[in-house]
């Protein structure tokens, strides 16, 4: 198929002498939601950080819209259309909600009011709280802000690192519903998750990472039906 938007080929990443990613390959088609599942330490965050060029790969290549971005600097990655909502949110607590959002549009000369309105539309809770200091938001609201900030650069592809981490089930549902809405506006999504059940319900396809290796991939339906996934990630025997 020719609609591959993003591709990782035989990617390897090390921290000193320790190999964290041991040669993984994956593809994302335009408009898809693809999830990377795995336990703690599997290498999910490292994969996303390497795509965003916050780490250098040891070898392998990363392609976006047919171009090689393996050595493209991080700020150019954002301008090209890939935006990253990091694990742990990393919002600026002493700035207001709106100031955090404006920082997310740093690749543009000035903040596009239409994008701000689009983001507030997706996250009405943030619109209500635009003048509140981000550090005083609840955990769920901070997660919304981290995703919203990543959207401010109007990405074609959004990288989401564990958006459900530390959230109550009802908030996980709300966040995942919004990710679906974001996808429906045409944004391609690469989602890293430990919450396999919620991620597989949302995603079109999934890759499973174990200690730096891809061990399984398929459509979400295939993975939900897989015995290995049921035992290891969905708590069923
Ligand atoms: P989690 O869900 O716990 O965040 P993960 O799947 O995202 O896990 P990574 O954070 O990518 O996993 O870590 C992959 C491996 O790389 C782990 O063994 C981890 O200890 C190691 N690692 C991650 N960051 C560093 C670092 N800065 N220096 C050395 N080793 C690191």
From TrEMBL:
Organism from which the protein derives: Desulforapulum autotrophicum (strain ATCC 43914 / DSM 3382 / VKM B-1955 / HRM2) (Desulfobacterium autotrophicum)
Pfam name, any one: ABC_tran
The entry's keywords: Amino-acid transport, ATP-binding, Hydrolase, Nucleotide-binding, Transport
GO molecular function: ATP binding; ATP hydrolysis activity; branched-chain amino acid transmembrane transporter activity
Protein name, as recorded: LivF2
CDD domains: ABC_TM1139_LivF_branched (cd03224)
Biological process according to GO: L-amino acid transport
PROSITE patterns, alphabetized: ABC_TRANSPORTER_1, ABC_TRANSPORTER_2
Transmembrane feature ranges: none
UniProt record similarity statement: Belongs to the ABC transporter superfamily.
Its EC number(s): 3.6.3.-
Keyword Ribosomal protein applies: no
Domain of life: Bacteria
Domain ABC transporter: 6-236
């Amino acid at each position: 198929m020719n609609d591959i938007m993003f591709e990782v080929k035989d990617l390897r990443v090390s921290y000193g002498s320790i190999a964290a990613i041991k040669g993984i390959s994956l593809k994302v088609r335009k408009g898809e939601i693809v999830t990377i599942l795995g336990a703690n330490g599997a290498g999910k965050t490292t994969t996303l950080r390497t795509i965003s060029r916050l780490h250098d790969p040891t070898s392998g290549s990363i392609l976006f819209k047919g171009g090689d971005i393996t050595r493209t600097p991080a700020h150019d990655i954002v301008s090209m259309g890939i935006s990253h909502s990091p694990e742990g949110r990393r919002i600026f607590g002493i700035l207001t909600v709106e100031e955090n959002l404006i920082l997310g549009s740093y690749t543009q000369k000035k903040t596009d009011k239409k994008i701000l309105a689009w983001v507030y539309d997706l996250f009405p809770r943030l619109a209500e709280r635009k003048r509140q200091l981000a550090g005083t938001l609840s955990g769920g609201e901070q997660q919304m802000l981290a995703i919203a900030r990543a959207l401010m650069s109007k990405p074609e592809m959004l990288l989401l690192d564990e958006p459900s981490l530390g959230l109550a089930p009802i908030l996980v549902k709300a966040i995942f519903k919004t990710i679906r809405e974001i996808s429906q506006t045409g944004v391609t999504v690469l989602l890293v998750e430990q919450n396999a059940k919620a991620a597989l319900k949302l995603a079109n396809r999934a890759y499973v990472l174990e200690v730096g290796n891809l061990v399984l991939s398929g459509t979400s339906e295939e993975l939900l039906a897989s015995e290995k996934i049921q035992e290891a990630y969905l708590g069923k025997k």
